[in-house]
Amino acid sequence: MQNQIDRMNKSQVQCLPNRQWRLIVLSLVLTGMMLLSFNCPAYSADSDSDNKQEITLNDLQDAGILLRYIRRQAINIYVEADRAKLTPTSSPKIPEVEEIPVKVQPKDVLPPRRQWVLLYLTAIEPVVRELGTEITNTQEGLNPIIPADLKKSLEPLWQEWADNVKGLNQDLDELLPLVDDAPHNNQQIRDVAVKIFDHTNKLENVRRQVFVVLAHVERFKPDKKVLINPVD
Predict the structure, then answer these.
(1) How far is 135 from 158, CA to CA, in rounded Å?
(2) Per-residue confidence of the chain (232 residues) as pLDDT tens digits?
(3) Which H or E element spans position 69?
(4) Where are the alpha helices (DSSP H) in 108-185?
């Protein structure tokens, strides 16, 4: 997947205006910063000596920031494939889209621009793939260490998180082949954007539930910790 995106990026070096290149550079810098945050959980003095790390409320907040970023890019991808052809009577105001799919679609829709779809895709692809890697490594033996009395509430949430992260990765796999011929794939691109949006909303719902559980534990059972084995 990443090699394919790299090749697509190189093929477009000559066709992106300077402004779009500045946007791409900015988005990649932000992505790199978020990955650093995701891979460096808050330090806890209570962590085990064998390098296990506690999952903290701040870690969950960071996850929420990542999800909000992915959600916004899903909306951007959808909007790119749903642009109305403007007329002299059109409003100069840019619509504020917060939910997709939108209820009313334009009668005359412009073809999606490949450079813009690629811009939004490359902005979230490293984050989504990193989430998928964390899930895979965990399922191969690095399971979270959950105190027995918390397993009933947390294990189903962990499974729901893993399922939706896998769904996000599948969404990107579905979107990638559509990029090369983006101008002819309005509806397909919109459909995948909605899937990314929905999976991200489900992940946010799980994150909030886990936050509530851990906040309760931290307040009333401070000796209980949920730990992970970090992946090198």
Answers:
(1) 10
(2) 555 555 555 444 444 444 444 444 444 444 444 444 444 444 333 444 456 778 889 988 989 999 999 999 999 999 999 999 999 999 999 989 999 999 888 889 999 999 999 999 999 998 898 888 777 665 554 456 777 888 888 889 988 998 999 999 999 999 999 999 999 999 999 999 999 999 999 999 999 999 999 999 889 888 888 776 655 4
(3) helix 57-80
(4) 114-139, 151-179
Tokens of 21: 């290149």
| The pair of three-digit structure tokens given for residue 197, joined into one six-digit string | 């949006």
Secondary structure (3-state) at 81: coil
Half-sphere exposure of 229 (CA within 13 A, CB side): 10
Burial class (CB in 10 A: 0-12, 13-18, 19+), 80: buried
The token pair at 210 is 């886990």
The pTM for the full model equals 0.77
Distance of CA 97 to the CA centre of its chain: 18
Residue 120 token pair: 């939004």
In 3D space, the residue among 44, 106, 34, 40 whose CA is nearest the CA of residue 70 turns out to be: 34
Report the chain's C-alpha Rg in angstroms. Answer: 20
Q: Which tokens is 36 given?
A: 């650093």
Q: Tokens 């909303």 correspond to what residue?
A: 201
Q: How many residues does the chain have?
A: 232
Give the tokens for residue 133. 């890697």
The two three-digit tokens of residue 84, written as one number: 């109305």
Distance, C-alpha 212 to centroid of its chain: 21
Rounded CA-CA distance 122/115 in Å is: 10
3-class secondary-structure state, position 95:
coil
